[in-house]
Structure formats: structure tokens, C-alpha cells
Model the fold of this input.
Amino acid sequence: MRWILRLLVNETDRRTIEADLAELHELRRRQNGQREADRWLRRQHLLYPLHLLADRLRAAAIRRVTAMPNLWRDLSYSLRTLARTPALAATIIMTVGVGLGATTGMMSVVRAVLLNPLPYADPDNLFWIYTDNPPFKFRFSVVDYRALEADHPAFSTVAAYQSRTVTLTQGDVAERATAKSVTGSYFPLLGQSALVGRLFDPSDDTPGDRIAVLTEGYWSRRFGGDRSVLGRTLTVDGESYTIVGVLQKSTGPLENNVSLFTPARWPPPRRKGPFNTMAIGRLRPGVSPAAAREPLRATNAALFPIWKSSYQDEKATWGLQELKARVVGQTGSTLWLVLGAVACVLLIACANAVNLLVARALDRRREWAIRGALGASHGRLLQHLAVESAVLAAASAGLGLGVAILAINAVRSYGEGYIPRLNEVQLSLPVVAWLGALAAVSGALMFTGGLLSVVRGSHRQMDQTLRSGGRSATVGRGPRRIRHALVATEFALATPLLVAALLVLSSLDRLQHVSVGIDPTHILTAEISLPSARYPEETNRRALWERLRDRVSKLPGVEAVSLADSRPPSDAGNLNNFDLEDHPTPPGGNQPLSTWVAVSPDFFRTVGLPLERGRLLDAQSLRDNVIVVDRAWADRFFPGQEGLGRRLHEGGCSTCPWISVIGVVPTVKWTGLEAADEGTVYLPFVDFPNGFVMLRAAGDPARLSAELRAAVRDVDPGLALANVATGTELVSESLATPRYLSVLVGMFAVAAMFLSVVGIYGVMAYFVQQHTREIGIRLALGGAPALVHRMIVMQGLRLVAAGVAVGVPAAFMTVRFLRTVLFEVGAADFAMIVGVPAGLLLIAAAACAGPGRRAANMAPADVLRET
Amino acid sequence: MKLQHFELEVLLAMIRERRETYSVPLVLALEKQTGRRVAQAAVFIALSRLEAKGLVASRLDEPDGGRVRRYFKITRTGMAAAKEHHHEHARLWRGLGRLLRADKG
Done:
């Protein structure tokens, strides 16, 4: 602290302060113990300079306000001088402004998504409780939740919900919506209240009237915010529900896209599964997550033997994770990466602005010298410089605000579906304050740049400058070093950014070349859910699907129709465990898992998947207990052997009949293009309540969507079609996140490179201008122009090389950080890290060539005459 | 004389001390009165401002081998300023006690 204090107060005061602090420290040590006293002292040491600085700034501000006329004069003078160099002012304002805006925009996204607590009561104690079967984390089954509900010593409250897509019918109009069945403890747990009417409470868990609570969004959209909505009925999947309340407006992730809530009156489970119940709990005060784990494990261990007939995986236990971490998922690293990239661009923009200002300040030394000679004090000159920097920073901040609003809007409209909590992203006051702070720092940097190059001019130097006429004097070492360091810094920052951009791009390129396994170009798909009220029995559902298939297959231009419960390349229905007859899982071991896709027999023809071995599914497959597997599955479990005829038990159910493999087809991507091929099992699709219609069109599949919709309405007007998409669209959607990421990072990298190149060009051009006389003498004495040219280029490249040398280790660190968002990082990527510096040096050499040529082409006689 | 809230607190703490004092007893007294932690830096700055306004005067005590201390004492102007504040507050509060007592909410 001493050196900071020495800057801020005189020697006597510093000694008094230290003596007083020592005395207070001693007193506190006696009262509160050594540790507490030391902590107090550290805090005082940290706070002292801040307090003093704040006091000085306040006093200075008061003085300045009283000296307002000077300030106005400086302001108008600054505006005039900036207007005389519009290109310079515009460059600084544009680059710094865009950097500020983009950084602020990304900061508001990071703040809303990663930093802000969830908008629920006491959000830090909210946890997701899941089935932990490394590497997988499953939701709960109803069995699990009922056991947790009965015994949760570490939690004050637990709640659960299941999300489902329902068909809401009003008159002739049917629409698809997301509904959540929630336990009575759900709303109290989150601390939510009703806007109109009431919410559910634990008494609603017992069977009674069918009731529903609407979200504020659906209520406004569908009922125009009519408060008399209470008591009205709503048809959900063919059943009437009475509206009892509207939930308060909420931007929370648990309400995102949800239209209504119904009470969770789940029937008593007959088996442990399916795992579609999201359990959440609030930890009791003072209980740590680590301490909560043990009772969870104990409850699960007690539960296991009871349900062993339907779930054998003894290794699976229960775990808990902060609800926020669960909601944010993998997005964190991507967002920090983009924020880092933007911040790099801002830093480079600032470095560039300072560089330009230093150059200009050097040009203005004569003006400053005259002003100094005429009696302007250092303080006045400083004030002028500060006002000029403030004007530039304020203009940049203004532009930045606009850019930030645009950036936030862009992220909100394009990030839907890829970034969670998007509806919480907004331009809030703290974010605007952040913009202001960044702008102030940028302004301070610009001021420092000008300061170091101008105010170094003592009166003696001013005198020299005046005498030399401000022409021939070359720049002192200090300012030149600053400019060189700034350019080197720009390249040091641009290197990792370019490496990151190229890595993300090459990862995208690799992903784009991953084969989906089918030709998606002529495929059209759409999702349909059968309302449980109207299709309660298997036979009803089976008949409907068959009618639908017949009707759609008669549409002109349709070559084949099929049904499936999943869509390639990243919408797999189920991940199932199973036990192979040939490789039985030892007791207590983890059974193998793979994707299970239910398809109707025509599926393989519809998507153009040829048969490799054996035969395909047919109408008898369900009865015969047979499945088809893909090449990846066969190679995973039976490498180099025959896959046909192998038998397994689904879900590890040892009492169930054996299921046999009757065919092998080529591998298809179901769980994402980036996912490793771990094999897929195809089972018959017969009487599922939800499914996708898939059709192969002779021509453009998108043209058939209206006909498909009409055909579905023909079969049953109460059915709603959702998520209509062509195969190509599905593939494109699965690439959206890496594509956005590469476009963003790529844009920033190009901006960084451009700014750095402008920086090196400016420095070298200025170098030539400043050394015109020496170059002229050199040429006049017979120096070869080519040598002069090379000298200039080499001078520039030395700076760039210094920057790049710092940037390369940073680039290696970037690669480590990027691994989570990249697809297959390989040796070629490391070659890229070497290639980027080489490329940067080449581009920099081209930028330096201009000033170099100008120097080499000087006519020595003219130069010597003019200087 | 315009005084900031904390400056007034420091000035009143000095009156309570009744004799010349330095920053340590003032920090302790203020902590006792306000019930919150007080930064020594804040007291130092307030004393400097009060001195600049002529409300307190200081002298340096530098015993051989002992701790260097700056002692402050309140000036006549300082006393007058404190009284002025007291009167102004008394005027502002006049008649309000009864109303506040009447308001049970």
C-alpha cells in the first residue's frame, strides 16, 4: 500500500495513517483474534487508496465545475480539432464504439444466462435431483419421486413435474402447446404466486376435478388478459379442464414456452420407468450439497431391491446438481468464448485508437509548444487532452449503446433454442453502467496515450520543438516505444483470436462433412400427438396411424410414407439399456446402452436406407420380437462377427422374452452429427401416442407441407401438426450452434486482424514520415532503394513477430479451452497454430510494403531540399 | 456551513470526546454509536475536509521512538457549525414527535 499512499498523501500523513492503522489492528486483534484482525487490516489497505482516490476525484470534479467556462472552451475546441481530422475521429469512434457495443451486448447475455440467479425464491438452494449412472444423468421415474417425496431429510421441500406436448382445442382450431403436470409442492417450492385466481397446493395432488393454471404469456395471447377467464374450460388432449388461475409473469427457464400447468396425479407406477420426471428440491438451511448426497444414496439403495424386476442397474444412484447449472448446461463455455473474443476486439480497438492518438499528438507537439510558451499551464493542457479523450469516449459509448441494443436483439432472435434463459436477456441498468465503465476505461487509455507523448515535453523540450519548427525532430524514444508496444499487443491479441476462429471453422467444416447416413433431400417430417382422451387404447392408436399412413401415401408426389418416434440427425427418442445373451452383464455391472428408434416397416424405404444383412422389419415384427440394428451396433458388440440372430433382453428385463436381431442396416446419425456412433436398434412402431410422419417426395418436399396438413385434418380435425421440417432443414438445424459460433468468432477475428494491420501500417507510415531526412541522406549517399525497402519491412515485421510470439502460447491455451465446443481436434489443428503466425507475418509484410515502397521511391534531392 | 452527513458524525463524535483526539478513538466511538464498521480512511478524509473548512485544527505529535499521531481539536467555527446544525434540525423536528407517536402503523 505504501507506494500508492505515497502518491496520494504526503510523507507525514502517510506515517500517521500507518501508525493509526497499526493501533486499530492491535485493538482488533485483542478483541476478535489474529485472523479477523489481519483480514480487517488487509481490507483497510485495499480500501484506503480507493477512498482517497474517490475523495480526490470528487474534489477535482467540484473544482472543474467551478471552472466551467474553461471546460466549455476546451469542449468546443476539441470538437473543432476533431472535426478537422474527421477520418481519424470516425475511425476511433467506429472501432471503439463497435467493440464497446459488442462487448456490452455479450456481457448482458453472459450476465442473464450465467451470472444472474434464477428468478425464483432463494435460487441458490434449488437443486435438480437425478438418477446418476455415469456418464449419464437421467431424470427420475415416478417410483423414484414417490420415494423421495416420502423421505428427503436434506431437503425442506421437493417437487416434480413432467413436460408434455398437448393439443389444445378451442372450437375447430387445434394448436400444439407445452403443458406441465406439476406436484402441489411445485409452486410453493419456487415461491411463485398467482396473478389471477389461485395456483396448485398439495391438496390438488389427490384425484378431483380436472383443473389448469395458465401461464401469463398464454393467458395474454389466447384470452387477451381477460380476468374473467376463471371457471372457463379448456380442452387439453380431448379432455375438459377448468381454469383456476393464472401464474404471475415469469421469465424463468422452467416456464419458458410453457402454456399451462395441470396437477400431477400420476397413477401408482407398476414399474420403475419411464425416466421422464424432473425432480427438484430446496436444501434445508445449513445443509451442503455434499451432505445431501448421502441420504439420497441411502433412499435409493433402499428402493433398489423393491423394483429390481424392472430396473437392475445397481450402480445407478441418485445425485444432485444446482438447478441453474442444469438449466445453463454446456452453453457456458461457448458464451465465455464469444465474450472473450469480443473483449479482445475491444482491447485491439482501444490499442489502435491510442496508437492513432499518439501519432496525432506527436504531430501536434508544435501546437502544444506554442500554447505552453504563451503561458498555458500543464494543467490546462492536460484538461484539454482529457476533454478530447472524453469526447471520443462519449461518442464511442453512444455508438456502443446502439450496437449493444442491436447485438442483444440479434442474440435474442437467432439464439432461440441454443441459448437458455434468452427471455431474461435485456439491456438493463447494470449493463448500461458496464458500458459506461468500459467507455471510461477506453477514454482513460486514450488520455494516457496522449499524455505520455505530449506531456513528456518539458519546457526545455518545448523550446527545442519550437526552434526546430516541428519539422525535423524525430520522435523521442518513449512515445515510439509506446506505439510499438501497442502494435505488438494488437498482434498478440489477434493471434489467439484467429486461431480460435479457424479452429471453430474447421470444426464446422468437419461437422458438415459428417454423413447423416441417409439422403435427407427429399424427406419431409412432422410431429403428431394423439390426444389420450380420444385414443386411449392401443387398438385406437394403431388404427389411426394406419389410416393416416394410407391417406398421406395417396397424396400426389409422395413416394413413400412411414412413422417413427425419432428424427435424424439429432432427435433420438430413447436411450435404452439391454443385456446381450452372448455378453451378459455381470451382477452389479452397468448394462450397455444404445439409441432405440421405433419405426414402421416402410421407414427404411422412405429414408433410402439399404439392407446390409438379413431382412427388414415387417407387420409381424412386434409379435415375433425382432429388431434391426445398424452397422455401428453390430461392430460395437460383435466386431468381425455375424450380428444376425443375436439375442438380448430389453431394459435388462430377465423375465421378458428374448428379442432377436434379424437385419443390419448402415449407420445413421440420431444423437447429433458430433456424437460418436454407438449403435442404433430399430424396433417396430405400432401404437405409440406420439410420432413423426416421414415421407419421401418425388420433388421438393417443402411443397408438400400444406397437403400433409390437410391430409392430417382429413383423418382427424382434432389432430395438430407440429414441427414440420424437411430433412435438409433438420440437418441444417443441428449445425446451427457451431455455425453461429463460427460466424461470430470469425467476424471478430477478421475485425481484430484488420485493426492490427491498420495499426502496423500506421506505425510504419509514420516511421517513414519521421525518418524522411535520414532515408533521403541514405539514398543520396548511394544506398540501394531495395535495401531501404527491406529495412522498413523488417522493422515492421520485428514488431509483429514480437506480438505473435506472445500470442502463440495464448493460442495454445485457447485450444485447451475450446476443446469442449470443438468437434474432433486433431494434429492438423496444431499445424494451424503454427500457420496463423506465418499468415499474420505475411499480411503484416504486405501492410509494411506500402510505407517501404514510399521510402524507397523518394527522390533524395527533393527530400533534402524540403527538410 | 454545509456539512456532509459523515462529516457531521465525526464532528459530533469530537464534541463528545471533549478534548483533543486522534483518529483511532474516533473510529471506535463512531462504531459504537452507529453500530457498523467504520473505515479509518473515511475518518481520515472527513477530518481533512473538516480541517480544510476550518472546523477543526490539528497538530502533529511525534514523540521520540513513539507512534506519530495527528491530534485534532474542534475550533470555535466548528462549535458554531455544530450548534447551527442542531438548531436547524430542532426546527425541522418541531411538532413532529406528537404526530409520529400518534401514528401507530
